[in-house]
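Researcher: Can you fold this with zinc ion in place?
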Amino acid sequence: MKPRLLLSVIIATMLPSAAAQSRPFPGPDVQQIYQRLLPQIEKIPAFDHHAHPGYADDPDIDAMAAPPNASAPFRTRDDNPELVAAAKSLFGYPYKDFSPEHSKWLLDQKTELKKQLAGPAYFNSILDKLNIESSVANRAMMPDYLDPKRFPWVFFADSFMWPFNNEHETARNSDEGVFIPLQEKMLHRWMQQESVTKLPASFADYLKFITTVLEDNSKRGGIAMKFEVAYFRPTTFSDPTRAQAEDVYAHYVSGGVPSERDYRTFQDYIFRYLVQEGGRLHLPVHIHSAVGIGDYFNLSQSNIMNLESVLRDPRYASTTFVMIHGGYPLDREAIWLAAMKNVYLDSSEMELIQYPAAMKETLKTWLETFPDKITFGTDCFPYNQILGAEESYWLGVHSSRTALAAALAEMVSENEITEAGALDLAHAYLHDTAVKLYEGRVH
Ligand SMILES: [Zn+2]
């Protein structure tokens, strides 16, 4: 064999096919590639980077709550027929709808299973059925029915930004009327945790109190802090001095309603303080970065690009950021934020709002841009007393794995990557990339 020929043989085995050029359409082999990839992708134990596991009547599933009568996009409604498939797959549900008498069967079945699988065994069994090795529990507090080894806690950090009289904040609209009192409640719980009965008189002591909560939560198993601040105020953060924030604190610590300008100045400082502490204490910072529930959710004031000045600020280079929900529907822009070494994207919620055909496009763009910076999550959440986090987990996992297999199959068929390379990317997205962020604390 002549050296030149040998070289071409080697290149031919490395490249997706003998043709070295990528092409703009998948070939007729795309379905076969999909059929080969999917079962292998289903065998990869997943790390769910963002979820709200728990029972429907558990108020600690989130630090906020859905406002009553909020519009829900089509696929996220509890009459989505895909949920019948979820109940069938998880519990052997024998019916084709959720009529009241049929729903009772499911409720009874779950009650019986919870009896057989007491304590943490029930939710562990759900993870086992879905091949999820572990799942983040982004919750106000952890319950005793979730196994902390498989459900690492991500706690909420927003409430430190709302310590003053919130009359104006609460009155802005009916959504804030639900959200802000729950932030007050969360702050009060952190104060109780640290045996603090009233706001510290000095700003320095208030900052010390915040740090103590972060440190204690880390000791209690917290692996990251989460912000859902986009629900409560615009996500443009100015860069006030400590003296400016201290002035506002001194002015309102013992009463009085802050002007919007004063409140934002104070909050902007606290947000940046928390981000900095997240770097120092090795607590990655998770930020809700997509559209959200509630009819008053303001997309233009909370769009992910508002955070660019914080994410690309070299002062926060040691803080790991995870952009929860990948900036949806600005997921194409969002992936470019992952150019920063310390910024990662999570795909949760996008796979529940979008059907797999659309989710495939999202994942393909991401996989073709920064495939080593994207992580899988479900954003599972109980729908109601009958359809729980279990069915939501199922829909999230099923949607993500099929969309992933489809995106990768197209990339293989279009000569962008090899099949072996596709499986490497699948492992990274479903498990490895996220797990590495927590320095041995999760698996
Ligand atoms: Zn969530």
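Model: Folded with zinc ion in place. Strands lie at 46-48, 132-135, 137-138, 153-156, 222-227, 285-288, 321-324, 343-346, 374-375.
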